[in-house]
Amino acid sequence: MSFIFQNARLLNPLVHLDTTGSIKVAEGGIIEAVVHGNEVIAASPDDRVIDLSGKILAPGLFDMHCHFREPGQEYKETLESGSNAAVAGGFTGVALMPNTKPVIDSPLGVAYIRHHSGMLPIDLEVIGAMTEGSKGEHLAPFGKFRSYGVTAISDDGTAIQNSQIMRLAFEYASNFDLLIIQHCEEKSLTEKAVMNEGLFSTKLGLKGIPDVSEAITLSRDLLLMHYLEKHKLHDPLKRPRYHVAHISTKAALDLVRKAKLDGLQVTCEVTPHHFTLSDEDLFTADKKGNYIMKPPLSSIENRDALLEALADGTIDAIATDHAPHASHEKECPADQASFGIIGLETSLGLTITELVAKKVITISRAIELMSVNPRNILNLKQILFKPGEEANFSIIDTDADWIVTSASLKSKSSNTPFLNRSLKGKATGIFHKGNYTALPIA
Questions:
Q1: SS percent in the chain: helix, strand, coil, step 5
Q2: CA 155, CA 103: separation in Å to the nearest integer?
């Protein structure tokens, strides 16, 4: 059986495509025909025709920063439940961070994920740890990671504090064209702290994280990159590549802007919760545990700086930092809550509601941030709408109105501050691995 997607708005920022058209996908998931305009693809009795009038057919969304908790913490999330949550959010692929239990710091961990992901409906890319056990002391085997198809490394959840180890990480990673993804945090400033340092942390009597913590670690890393570039201590064809995870402050954004102008290979991502919420939302919330995360929800000034950076192109990707936790780890005093929230199922809705509908960015820019750029940053194959290519689509209704409810979530966890929030824009289906999955609006 072939699938015919008729009358869609074909939107692919990679090739500046934005037009009405139809796509026929043969059995096996390979694109057979693409027509533009109002031309209709003739269907045989065995074909399944899906009318997408008023909807967008985009290259499959890809989240480059997720935690599925397997192996080791399957009570929070598994590869299967996390994949189901991704599908519900309109994603056809994700990249998994290595801070599982045990940490993915060897090819054995990579092989485990790949072995168990074959029958899942989405692609799972594995990010290897930068150091053994993510302890920041001894580098992980980057070369072996590369031979297993790993394209990026990170000690997400922490940052290497030792500058010599960080320098070696840059040099070693560049030899294998591995992207370094950094969780920027100067830990001596954040120990036992739970939220942004400021008026609201003072009012709540909670220890605050100074927002300069992010910029201090980022500044050090960029200085190391400058040093290595200036002194040509590595093959000039093997330059270090660096990506800032979940950027959250104006100071860090300014550093990224300057680094890009200086010609460094630096990119950054932002999460929907950071461009939507502030520490004031935590202050007024009843269930504060669902507002506890790292980096913390920051000031309105920093949130507005993120919106500006999304509009001017400084930010390269939107990523969820999907971080499931069990209810007992969140429904507790704020200073005892685990860091992180789920985000796969609300990411697209928040992006359309808070950014596209408010004209911060266009829908084309949103697809670029959520599909094209993440794949480009991770050196993954891009998606094209042309005969002979594998079909990998997200179908989006930008006018769909829906409410986030715990009953509708496919994740094993429901730790989100967006429960009962009304959103506009939702994925109504995906096509990947030869299969079409229709998704409900409600």
A1: 35, 25, 45
A2: 9
Give me 119's structure tokens.
Answer: 């029958």
CB-based contact 61:85 (threshold 8 Å): no
Does position 425 have pLDDT exceeding 70, yes or no? yes
CA distances from 310 to 111, 306, 361 (A): 36, 6, 7
CA gap 138, 172 in Å, rounded: 12
Mean predicted confidence (pLDDT) in 429-435? 97
> Per DSSP, what are the bridge partners of residue 423?
402
β-strands 48-51, 3-12: how paired?
A: parallel
Q: Give dist(CA 275, CA 307) in Å, integer.
A: 6
**pLDDT score of 56 more than 90:** yes
Distance CA 400, CA 409 (A): 17
- The answer to whether residues 244 and 266 touch, using CB atoms and an 8 Å cutoff, is yes
Domains of the chain: residue spans and CATH: 3-57+389-399+422-438 (2.30.40.10), 60-377 (3.20.20.140)
Of the candidates 81, 63, 127, the residue with the CA atom closest to the CA atom of residue 321:
63
Taken in order 426, 152, 365, 25, the sign of the CA dihedral is negative
Q: Name the residue with tokens 């993510």.
A: 134
Tell how strand 17-25 and strand 48-51 pair up. Answer: unpaired
Tell me the pairing of strands 91-96 and 61-66: parallel
Strands in 128-216 per DSSP E? 152-154, 179-182, 195-196, 208-209
Counting beta carbons within 10 angstroms of the beta carbon of residue 71, is it exposed (0 to 12), middle (13 to 18) or buried (19 or more)?
middle
pLDDT tens by residue, 327-365: 999 999 999 999 999 999 999 999 999 999 999 999 999
- Cis, peptide link before residue 45, omega less than 30° from 0: no
Q: Which residues are catalytic?
A: 321
- Percent of the chain having pLDDT more than 90? 95
Distance CA 395, CA 391 (A): 12
Residue pair 422/400 in contact by the 8 Å Cβ criterion: no
pLDDT of residue 39: 86
Query: Which tokens hold the place of 208?
Result: 């605050």
Return the axis-axis angle of helices 163-175 and 212-231, rounded to nearest 10°.
50
Three-state DSSP class for 1?
coil
Asked if residues 298 and 211 have their Cβ atoms less than 8 Å apart, the reply is yes
Q: Are 91 and 344 in contact (CB under 8 A)?
A: yes
- C-alpha 108/C-alpha 308 separation (Å) is 42
pLDDT given for residue 237 in this prediction: 67
Query: What pTM was computed for the model?
Result: 0.97
Beta bridge partners of 393: 59, 431
CA distance 249 to 270: 10
